[in-house]
Amino acid sequence: MTIIALILSILLGTVSLAMGYSQAGATDYPRWFLLLAGFWLIAHFRKWYWFASIGLLAVIIAAAYGVWHGFPTVWMLLGAVGGLLSWDLSDFARRLSYASPMDDTRDMERRHLERVGIVAALGLGLALLSVFVHFQRLAFEVAVVLVLLAALGLTRLVIGLRK
Amino acid sequence: MSRSILLSLFTYALLLVGIVTTQGAYLALALPLVTYLLVGYLYTPEKIQLEATRQLSAERTSPNSDVDVTVTVTNRGSSLEEVLLEDILPAGLTVRSAPSSPLRTSRHLLRLARGESYTFAYTVSGPRGAYVFEALAAQVNSHLAVSRPRVRVEAPGRLFVFPPVRRVRHIAIRPRRTRVYAGMIPARAGGAGTEFFGVREYQPGDSPHSINWRASARYIDALYANEYQQERVADVGILLDGRLRTNEFAGGHSLFEYSVQAAASIADVLLSQGNRVGLLLYASYLGWTLPGYGKIQRERILHALANAKAEDSQVFSDLEYIPTRLFPPKSQIIFVSPLTEDDLKPLIQLRAQGYDVLVVSPNPVKFELSYLSSSNPDVELAGRVVRMERLLLLQRLQRANIHVLDWDVDEPFDLLVKRRLGRAPIWLHTTGR
């Protein structure tokens, strides 16, 4: 179950990026994304779990690069969410590999997939909301202050939650 | 790198790029990561409190025998979504996949609700040794494994793998001094016993059955009675040589296990005969088990032997530091060692101090040659030279009135003892058995 979800999420991430890039006319890149997907899958089946972090980094950089060049943001967001899902599921599959054959992991898999699916959907929803809902344009200085405040608040929130 | 740190780095990098480029899309890219992190931390378990108990199917066993370990873990804290439990095995023990239960392992991934218990079992086996189970390692993953604290859950347990004890029926030793209690060792003194000791004049109170009629017929002035040798218990000190240089050979082959087996068998038979037995391990340290009697002493000695390891030390590299004060004067010392040339002098000194010394020596020459190529002429020549050297050493010891039992370890120890040291008690002859 996890493996199928992992394959689908890798495909979601890389194909979305490929679509976004090709729609914007950057037709040289999609083949690299497909190569990344292939290598990610090979790495997973060869138990090179460290590659998942590199894969996520590659997807985030590719999405950021796409945003920089003004490629369709929705595809870039889908790519980032796909990368995040793949990274999570790859680690989850690694953890599952530690289970003994007697352990009941099916229920654990189902619960994790539900949870990570909800989180991905929520993250994507919020991101899309932020893309499509625009308020009156703020002054740059105000925006910077707001973002810094958000970052500070986020840090404090994370520290608080960790405690 | 921790998962949360990696995601945080990506998030802050996207935020920074968003600020620098003044593009809100970067912030949108960061939002799924932020959501993931926040949800992950929001569902981090508040309190991890696991308790564990351990049960072993046997606390004392023989080498490579299967022992079932059953561990029960109870969650006394908040619900745990994903716990990876791994029992920390003492070094030397291995998990066995028994044919009846091939899936049993010491590692489990599970979900533990508050108050819930989980029991798992697996089978271990190992060589001789004393093994201490201490704890389980538990890695508790939060919902999205953003935080994964590791906790140690104490679950103590002990397993002793004793050396195999080959039952020996009797060991004939004759120390100069015995103790006052009746036993099976000839005491070099006349009295009640089974073995003929001499003839003396009949004393009032002697049993008429003890009258030696043949001797009495020769002399008309008095009657003569047979006297029997008293049989008592004795003090026996077993000295186990744990020096690495005498026990270990090329390729990691060691005779020490055989020495330990021999010491265990000797202690077993001597204690079952009622003797007072102590054990001294002469290795990188002096491991002294105080002398004692009976089954409890047998347990103590087996525990000491389970712990015994062959180790090297500069101080105890030769036998000059044997603490002879530990052994009662004129008692029996049984030295279990493959022997080296340097051991001759200290052993003769022991004999000169009045101890009765018996050397049980696993034969290192045959042992080493058994795994060396016999077709190699150099090996054959070296083997002959070493064999002659050892023969000479044993002859010198015997000339010093030290009894030597040269043990080819291919032969079972009990058979060797029966052949060389097993004197059947006289009562067995008299009853015709």
Structure in a nutshell:
With 163 residues, chain A is mainly α. Chain A is built from six helices and no strands. In chain A, α1 (2-23) packs parallel to α3 (51-68).
Explained architecture:
The complex is a heterodimer of chains A (163) and B (433). By secondary structure, chain A is an all-alpha fold. Chain A has two domains: 2-132; 139-163. In chain A, 80% of the residues lie in helices and 0% in strands. Chain A has helices spanning 2-23, 30-45, 51-68, 73-97, 106-132, 140-162. Chain A is built from six helices and no strands. Chain B has helices at residues 3-21, 24-42, 213-218, 244-247, 256-272, 294-307, 344-352, 364-370, 377-399, 413-420, 426-430, and strands spanning 50-56, 60-61, 67-75, 80-87, 94-96, 107-112, 117-125, 129-141, 150-161, 182-191, 193-201, 224-232, 235-241, 276-282, 286-292, 332-336, 356-362, 403-407. In chain B, strands 15-14-13-16-17-18 form a six-stranded mixed sheet, sandwiched between helices. Chain B contains eleven helices and 18 strands. Chain B folds into four domains: 3-42, no CATH class; 50-161, Immunoglobulin-like; 182-232, no CATH class; 235-430, von Willebrand factor, type A domain (Rossmann fold, 3-Layer(aba) Sandwich). Chain B starts with a helix and ends with a helix. In chain B, a hairpin with a 3-residue loop joins strand 14 (276-282) and strand 15 (286-292). The longest helix of chain B has 23 residues, at 377-399. The radius of gyration of chain B is 33 Å and the shape is elongated. Chain B is α/β, with parallel strands linked by helices and 433 residues long. At the A-B interface, helix 3, helix 4, helix 5 and helix 6 of A face helix 1, helix 2, strand 4 and strand 6 of B.
Can you give keywords for this protein?
heterodimer, A: 163 residues, mainly alpha, 2 domains, 6 helices, B: 433 residues, alpha/beta, Immunoglobulin-like, 6-stranded mixed β-sheet, 5-stranded mixed β-sheet, 18 strands, disordered C terminus
